[in-house]
Specification:
The structure is a single chain. The protein has 96 residues and is mainly α. The protein contains four helices and no strands. The longest helix has 24 residues, at 13-36.
Length: 96
Amino acid sequence: MELHELVEIVDDQNSFLAFVEALKNDREDSVQKGKINPSSPYSSGANGWENGAIESFLEAAHAWAIDSDFGASQDLAEANMWKKMAVFLYCGKIYE
């Protein structure tokens, strides 16, 4: 299952931890692919990673939370905290 599909089904501690493990695996795969075929510094990395360093990852997740009112503007106002946190982490990967 793809990350964007997994994030949609997070609804409790176990599904959140499964998502975090999948995100970690996706990053590890991205790093390995980048060693074989480095991406341009002007484009996203392998597997769509926009933010590879922890600083840029957290900055992007934080920016998404501020810009979207922690997902309220994206129909997450009523979502449980497990899903909101999964989306927060996912946005660390993709948000610019």
